[in-house]
Amino acid sequence: MGKALKASLVAIVCLLAAACAGGREDGVIVIKFPHVVAPTTPKGKGAERFKQLVEQRLPGRVRVEVYPSGQLMNDDDSMEALAFGEVQMIAASLSKFDRLTKRFQVFDLPFLFPDIESVTRFQQSPEGRSLLGALADKGFLGLAFWHNGMKQFGAPRALRRPEDAAGLKFRIMESDVLLEQMRQIGGNAQKMDFGEVYQALQTGAIDAQENTWSNIYSQKFFEVQDYLMETNHGYIGYLLAVNPDFWNGLPADIRAELEQILDQVTREVNGESSAINAEALRKIIDSGASTLVELTPEELESWRAAMLPVWQLFEDQIGPDIVQAARAAGSPETIASPDSSR
Predict the structure, then answer these.
(1) CA separation for the pair 320, 276 (Å, rounded)
(2) Is 337 part of any domain?
(3) Which terminus of the chain has a lower count of CB atoms within 10 Å, N or C?
(4) Which CATH number belongs to the domain containing residue 15 in this structure?
């Protein structure tokens, strides 16, 4: 077989492999990127920035199609679609991955991270970075962690202490840790898709929810919640993931450029998330639609004490090394020892 023919056959095989790994139209690699939040949220802005930079730096070679606000599919459907190669990139909530590995449950432990900075320190630690590749054999190759922000409570009455939550129906993400968190404060947890929450609050199917200020504002939850409590009791973030076959099948130069773009976008998303949430809070307050409840240090401590048993129930499942690394990334003054309530 001549050298020219061999080269042609190799080129055809490479093109077919890349085409199977991801969408192609007229020789352009297409990256479909669905997500469920509004374009004004940290994730929404990150997806649009990724699209912008890709099309600036790889014109005619890669096109990114962003589908915000659940226009194409919800988080569960997007995870399945990514695993089967029907979409090429997602940024699903970290809570969604607890069905695939218990290690990701660390991000849902209440009052583990006192602020976004401590989350960043953990995610950049060896233990945190090990989670990026934890699901590659299941069809999810993690490339980055994207922040949304810290979680707050919304309810039909002021929740100053855990006992105030007794009997309320709380919407939660699909997380066993969050289910137990609500049990510890006497709430009735209901797992529900993000896109269904507003109507459920409006009709009374649920009473309460936990979310970041950016999500509470962009989804207008504040319009159907009489009280919002500033608790910062948990964290919402995302795993920016790709299908491993798609990613590894890309031409090396394109993959390298996409990695550089993602590094830049990740820095921007995570650097801007706190400001985006602060602006959302200001707009909520200015609306006058709901009452903001600022808890005293003593009241916050009562919430922390009530939720601390959740750590004891899940630490072994998650892995003591992961939990310890997360604790070490936070401020020791604000994180109680899980042994302190025994």
Answers:
(1) 33
(2) no
(3) N
(4) 3.40.190.170
**If you search the block for the tokens 């529900």, which residue do you land on?**
192
Q: What is the CA radius of gyration of the chain?
A: 21
The pair of structure tokens assigned to 68 is 């915000």
> If you average pLDDT over residues 19-33, what whole number do you get?
75
Number of domains in the chain: 1
pTM recorded for the entire structure: 0.89
- Spatial separation of the C-alpha atoms in residues 18 and 29, rounded to whole Å: 8
Strand arrangement of the beta sheet that strand 28-34 belongs to = 23-25, 28-34, 62-67
Q: Is the pLDDT of residue 197 over 90?
A: yes
For 164, the token pair is: 């105030």
Contact between 151 and 234 under an 8 Å Cβ cutoff? The reply is yes
Residue 234 lies in a domain: yes
Residue 74 has pLDDT above 60, yes or no: yes
pLDDT tens digits for range 133-147: 999 999 999 999 999
Residue 265 lies in a domain: yes
Residue 233 confidence (pLDDT) above 80: yes
